[in-house]
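Minutes, methods subgroup
Present: GH (chair), OT, SY

1. OT presented the first of two proteins processed in the latest run. Sequence and structure tokens recorded below as shown on screen.
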Amino acid sequence: MARRNQFKMSESQRRVRRFSESFRQEKVVELESGITTAREIIKEYEVSYTSIKRWLDKYGNRIKNKPKRIIVESESDTKKLLELRKRVAELERVVGQKQLQIDFNKKMIELAEEFYKVDIKKKFSDKPSSTSGTTEKK
């Protein structure tokens, strides 16, 4: 089984190297123009991919020249959107009124039940009466 000590790097192997601004910019230009690849730079200069990515973000033209998304709305779209928002507000108002009406009706039923001492909400059976539906054929 591999041990942690086997993977420790010596000081010379993990030395911190700093590349000049001009070197970084030069490598970014080479990358963007297609002269070299990131893999070649990593191998040749022992640089991490993360460092190259940071260089591209900082010095690269890809992000600066990236086309921006432009959204164009016509007046009819804007009017339609406003009308729909008004309609939603109106429907929300109607729903609120209906809810108030439902609450009022429930309270009225409760008061009527107390006053008349009858269970108004009681469900009655749906059995037909004995005289209904007894027609005979002659």
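2. SY then presented the second protein from the same run.
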Amino acid sequence: MTIYYPYTHLFPGPSHTVAISGPHIQVINTTTGDVLHSTTLFTDEARNAVLKSGPVRCAAVDKESKYLITTGEDKILKLWEVDGLKLLSERELPKKPTGLAFSADAQSILASDKFGDIFRYPFVHVPSTVTQKKDALSSHENPSGGQLILGHASPLNAFLLTHDERYIITADRDEHIRVSWYPQGYNIEMYCLGHSKFVSAIHVPQFDQSKLISGGGDPDLKIWDWMTGEVKHAIDVADAIDPFLVVRAVKRRRGGHDDDEEDEAVEGNGSKRRKGKGRAKGKDKQEEEKESEEGPIASSSQTTTDNAEKVLVIRKIGSLEADGVPTVIFSAVGATALFTLPYRDGVTMSNIRHFDFGRPITDFAIANDGLIWILLDSEWTPDGVPSGSGSPFVKVLQFSLGQLVEAPSGSHSALLLTLNETSLLEASVDDIKKLSLYIDLQTMPKYADKPEETEETTAEDTSDKKLSNKELGRMKRKQIVLAKAGGVGVGEGEEEEEPLSKKNKSEL
């Protein structure tokens, strides 16, 4: 039985398409389907360096599809020229990244990380000869001299630059969406408050750039006016997604801690858990403990057991105009279907359409010609053993009369054939497990063993439980958000927060 790596990233371009599977990168001619370049064909030394970096976790291309940035397990940011797959530079990132992006002119590279910071790096890397000191506002040292743009008090899950690049919008694991100036990220323009769980995906549609679509662990997608922080619409999607969630997360406990201690490390507030006399070999203390808190890694073929539960994590949100109709497209971690809904007032769950592939979707990409490329974990089986089934790893959809259908043969056919045959790379069972395709099902939720807080439970008398200042602060913030969401006053004796527009980080 031959097992293959599923694709984790695909960037279809007008002339070149970049396909990433496991630690490897391949550049394919978009028209002919010929594999032009591959890291599997590098010299022994260069190929070993690729393997040493581990599976590619984050990747992005510039809007002209000329350059590619990637990071793996080693936290090395690699800049590639797509034509020729030439490695232009490498630089060390301070912490494990959660996202990468190019600026519109490709002269700046942005990287978000697990400790809540976003750094900006110049396209041309000039290695520093002077040891970089820790920035007073960042949560950790920055070995490659990046410019700190902003920081959150919890891991960043998603970020984007607005189309005019005047603002940067960020979303974190503490339910916050923040709109900040760019590149003066210390100036906060607005908060979009209303999520009660983590936010894992955000998107500004090209056809309505004043709106933001967000989703995560909540049962709905929210549409915001991001300049005012007002929720314009919320669409319940949980019930539509639930029948297609086939990958489940193993339940885990956090030793009774109410919150993720990761925040303590970010905020640098001297938590006892964070004090240590030294560092583990090859890894600093903060990151070592942070990773241990995340629990066991969900493999790419996570089995369904009695100790497992369904967890909703919106993976990605995109949009396009389908037959002239503005349409939102989204996927969920561990779900086998791709979902769409029309972008209009009054849309409800009944308007959601889906296309079921029978295998979990690892990612999707919307090409400039309107075709939707779907990446599938075709090695997944309910019993957790990679199948080697021979099922397609990539499918292509298009809209027809408002419905998703498989695209008929056309100019994309040669590329599709290559992706499903020629460019497949063999892998072992251990290689597949190391991909951790569904790790978000375990690391995103914060209260895996606790009931959800409601307005009533957060206001209960807690005299029998001594709360930390941080826990009290979080409870107060949650009460304020819940009160505002319900149109209720904060209550006597409680001072409402200052207006959230344009606060400096030091004021938070």
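Chair's summary of item 2: The mean pLDDT is 83.
Next meeting: continue with the remaining queue.
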